Amino acid sequence: MAISSQESERRSRHSALRRGRHGGTAAAANFGRGFQALGDLAVDGVQVSARATDLVTGRVLFSVDDHVVMPTAGIGTVLLLIEVAARLRDANFGAYTILDRSAADSVAGSGLWQHLQAPSLPVADLAALVGAANDNLATNVLLRAVGLDAVRARAEQLGLSRTALLDLVRDRRGPDDAPQLSVGSAKELTWLFTALARGEIVDAEASERVIGWLSLNSDLSMVAGAFGIDPLAHRAGDHGLLLVNKTGTDAGVRSEVGILRGPRAGVTYMVSMSFADTRLSSRLAVLDGMRAVGLDLLEYVH
After folding, report:
1. Where is this region: Disordered (predicted)?
2. Which end of the chain is more exposed for a tag (fewer CB within 10 A), N or C?
């Protein structure tokens, strides 16, 4: 079968990715397995963006198109959690402030609150649900309370130009709605998580609150699937590993950003994939590729 010049150029470009063209210091860190997996996915038409940095030194361990703005689904709710954490010192918006859910907030998909009987919950509990289960209903109620404009302003104040929460969670996106819940770049999101770990986002107390909510995350189906830790109980560490992560899932989107600490080192990482989710095999290949990166990260820290 003849291959067009455009197709030949694309394959050549992604073959270079497999060889680690974007790698920088990747050879020293031995991230070859992850590069091979991401390169294979790129050749098959998956849009790939990834980055990993040493948590202490900030040294870039590997990067693949980390400046590209990618759809990140639920990862954008980290910006909402930051705004909520910043407001908790406000007497009119404390951790125990009760918020009611309404019919307008209702949305299907991920989350627990839609299956519970309680019509109202405290702000801090809603933030915990967002961190633990990417709770769509809790996200919309918190967004209604603080305002999407405030979340956007906070992101701009932090210097984020390629990362944003664009909208509330919707069952369907019409022509007048934002096409994605959120977008982000691997470079900005790894910086954000590193800054959270260092207590530099808003202040140390707010950063600690956000890290606490994110440490509850039970979705270890992507990169973190390689770490072998209990998805429902890993806050206290397991075999010397500590994980804080956030995932984003949508049709044709799989993204994860996180911090992994181990006995030897700590790393901040981000892997994002955009793909044609038309076959189960395509989705499984993406998840396998993300876990391949996870194995490299595990070897680096453990």
Report:
1. 1-24
2. N
